[in-house]
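ESCALATION

Customer reports they have been waiting on this structure for their group meeting. Please prioritize. Original submission:
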Amino acid sequence: MQIDTHTHGFELTQGLNEHLRRRLRFALGRIGAGVQRVVVRLSDINADRGGVDKRCRLQLQLPGQPDVVVEDTRSDLYAAIAAAVERAARALGRRSGRLRQLMRRTRTELPARFSRWPSEGSHP
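Update from on-call: job pushed to the front of the queue and completed.
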């Protein structure tokens, strides 16, 4: 999983970058193996004015599927990262659950439909 991090309004510290990567790997776990790339955008909306203005936006790119995009805004950037990562993990879990259910349904329906294959030489 490739992680690209972009910041707006501040410099990315090594500690913040490590926190972000650790949270992503832990929260996504096995589900994250299917994620090709994560684009992270961290921003301080109001800069020095304070308030609830630290935003974390995650865009998870999956092969052959639409991207998963989540964001969260908090007063603390670490909290915004944690919340956004948890939301992304839940969204991926829901999506993978739906895909598993579809695959299970397809596997159980196919043998019933195609239980008799035409043998060679049975064509008119």
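Sent to customer with the following note: The CA atoms of residues 27 and 86 lie 7 Å apart.
Escalation resolved.
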